[in-house]
Amino acid sequence: MFGYNSGFSQNILNGDFEINNAPVGIDQIGSTNFQFNSLVPHCNSYGTSTTGLDLITTDTWDGFAYSGNWYVGIEGGGVEQFSMELNTPLVSGVNYKISFYDRGRAVHCPASIEIGTSSVNNDFGVLIYTAPTPTIGEWNLRCFTFTAQSNVAFITVRAGNTTGCWTKLDCFNIEIADSPCVDFSMPNVFTPNNDGVNDIFKPIKFNGMKQGKMTILNRWGQTVFETEDVLNGWDGLHNNQQCTDGVYYWIITYTNIFDETKTETGFLTMKMEY
């Protein structure tokens, strides 16, 4: 296993699609290969569909980009495919980690994403990963490791399932695989006053983890809440009684996608009125 000091530094040059020549604020739907390639540097669309990849910036298609202003929509069945250029070729025998975000849409069947590596920008090359079926209406982190088998210069993408299925993609990243991908953040204040806003204390983001246990302690170190499913969250009750306003301490122990057990801790402030 190589670390960041190994001397290798590969990057996907335009993995978030923010570098583009598209008109500001205007979706580019069903672009031909030529049109997409003229709009998005360092990416190459080469699928067989007459109407190809979508470059999207508005919320017309059920939500904005995961980050930044742009994301790509891709049709399933392998009819739409594209490559992303690396700043320098992979080093054969080195372990790498690729992460990206995908999202399904209710009116389309979500298409599972397949990732490959290739020595040229117009061929899928070697399959290295197949993602789970995307979640409808929610960006999900995908993360995997692989060992480079050759000094290829392109990461390739296609969507499986059948023609007509469709998936959103954003934020492709590659790095040396010395740590797992985790996308995790907690709020620092919550207000369990039953107004429908911020009533449950739970992670804002909890991606790249298989399961997690959460414990809440009061200022005297007494356990006031515990759950084996961190996404259930805490409603501010202990023994069916509302806890008092104040500062509490949380502990989350989770298993990541590489079956490693990790612990995160922090403080939260509970306020009935905010």
Describe, in plain words, how this protein is organized in 3D.
This protein is an all-beta fold. The termini are far apart. The chain is elongated, with a radius of gyration of 22 Å. It folds into 2 domains: 4-176, Jelly Rolls (Sandwich); 183-270, Immunoglobulin-like (Sandwich). A hairpin with a 5-residue loop joins strand 14 and strand 15 (223-227). It has 1 helix and 19 strands. It is 3% helix and 39% strand. It has one helix at 33-39, and strands at 43-45, 54-56, 71-75, 81-85, 95-103, 113-118, 126-130, 140-147, 154-159, 166-176, 183-185, 189-190, 205-207, 209-217, 223-227, 237-238, 241-242, 246-256, 261-270. The longest helix is centred in the first third of the chain and has 7 residues, at 33-39. The strands form 5 sheets. A 5-stranded antiparallel sheet has the order 1-4-9-6-7. A 5-stranded antiparallel sheet has the order 2-3-10-5-8, with no helix packed on it.
